[in-house]
Design goal:
The complex is a heterodimer. Chain A is an all-alpha fold. In chain A, 63% of the residues lie in helices and 0% in strands. By secondary structure, chain B is mainly alpha-helical.
Chain lengths: 322, 337
Amino acid sequence: MTRTPAPPGPPSITPSAPAGAIGPVAQTAPGRPRASRGTSVATPRRKRMRPSMVIVGILLSLATLVFIYPFIWLISASFKPRSEVFDNQLIPNTFTLDNYLQVWQEAPLGLWLLNTVIVTVLATLAVTVSSAMVAWGFAYFRFRGRELLFGVVLATMMLPGAVTMIPVFLIWNGLGTTGTLTPLWAGNLFGSAFYIFLLRQFFLGIPRDLFEAARIDGAGNWAIFQRIAVPLCKPAIVVTILFEAQAAWTDLMRPLIYLRDSSTFTIPRGLKALVDQFGFGGDWHWEIIVTASVITTIPMIILFFLGQRQFVEGVATTGMKG
Amino acid sequence: MSAPTNRMPVNPAAVLAGTLADKTEKGGFTPPPASPARRRARRRNFYSALLFLSPWILGFLIFTLWPILYSAYLSLTDYDVINAPTFTGFDNYVELVQDPKIALALGNTIFYTVIQVPLHIGVALALALLLSRIGQSSGFFRTVFFLPNMTPPVAVGVLFLLVFNGQNGFVNLVLGWFGVNGPAWTTDPNWVKPGLILMSLWQVGASVVILLAALQSVPKELYESARLDGAGFWRQTRSVTVPLISPALFFLVIINTIAGFNNFTEAYTAFFGSGNSTYSNDAALFYVIYLFQQGFEFLHMGYASAMAWLLFLIVLLVTAVQMIVSRRLVFYEGGSQ
């Protein structure tokens, strides 16, 4: 198998049925013999070491270095005193924890972390529940105008955020919520087109007989949704949660628009404030910026390793940029 | 059919063209020669559906439809949030054409996008091809390549300033090993955009994952027959691989182009902001950055709305052209579109 070994449980986040539903996008027509699936394009494994494979190995190792090095550089620099930040030594000449202590003093880091956690949790929860509901509405019910309405959902995906940015700001401003965390997540209560699309594809993949059976047993619409559909789409739900958690944690634009007071900042907004204060425009304390960058990045790396498989497969399946 | 068959990315062309196959598959709504009882049941069904759809319908009306209309109106006014908008007709649009900073920002953005998108996709394809050759162990590299995508864009902006620093950044150190005297990436206006483009290539991992998935769905038999016909690696790549993964490539072209036009966070973090602005660099003034400044720093909300509409029209135009071109170039297995 060329892919990461699939653990037991949901074998893949792609259910089989929507394969046809994506239509012309589907590369492999259903019914084609799948003999070639598990093996890779290259020679079967452990046949022989050809010179070309050595070159492949070298190139991949170099690439790995390029991808990993900035992380190592950053982490290493965060343990260096101010004068050595740019010395490009992998192992600090002088090892110090001062930067971390100093960041904690210079900035209300605990508060920023708390704010970011609040926004991330609420944004993720809101978008997952609402998008799943709407996706279910599109997948399960049949009514006049459904395709048209779903077309509108897809069309909104193409709309640049810049067009709606100012009126949306005016709405939150009118509600008196600027300066609070509310505008950073409350919009998610209404679902998001991309997740609606993703989840709908999964719901369509569940055999309808299951729902009919539940209905005969007396289950209502909500019970069918909550007890049958959602549990069966757990992989897609997990992908939604992971993607949105990342988006909410890393967003800079909205905090820039809505937050004024330093005590309400999220971590990325706070990091930007530190860059303004200690970077080129300020007093050149790069060790603080470096350390704050590490603190901003670490939670995302943890998130990634928690949901690594879902992330990678989710990106591969949906074609969404992570 | 086994579960992991269809790993193809969603294709926006297909999506937009409304070619979702389930439209035909599910048959849609059958017209009703119905009894009153059935009509009642159908209505109840419709109301249940409405209940599930209500979050999106509300959100669409309040946070999409109204903002679109209101932003179109604002673009015809002067508005600073404090005083009521005053109608000025097409003045903002006239001003757009005359504003040299618009030309500058648009030029920067187009330069960035035109260079970044092909480079990004080229690098992603090269890495995906390498990964597809090593089979089993590609999992490790996929993880490694994806990690930079998890780095918050603000931190990427910071990394750019550090790693590309002209005097003692790591990039110039490495260039020095090869006898190349690296430029001042973060200050020289000629090198700021190339530097930002190179930095953006660090986050190529998601595209690698998408292309790798596409590569793995190419039937192996095709390579065997190509090899029997005497095709070498390049020939196979050009004649078999690229046509067969063209939907994925096309998808990446579309989303990366849109992302290029909306480029904001990294460059804003590195070069703009509320601090002492002497370090701000016109070479990094991208369109959305200028839009953000006009709207939220200078409070020229009317002008910024006009800018947003100009951006919308440009993106729409570019996407439309890409889709028309793709009809000739993109190969969809399983028949005509």
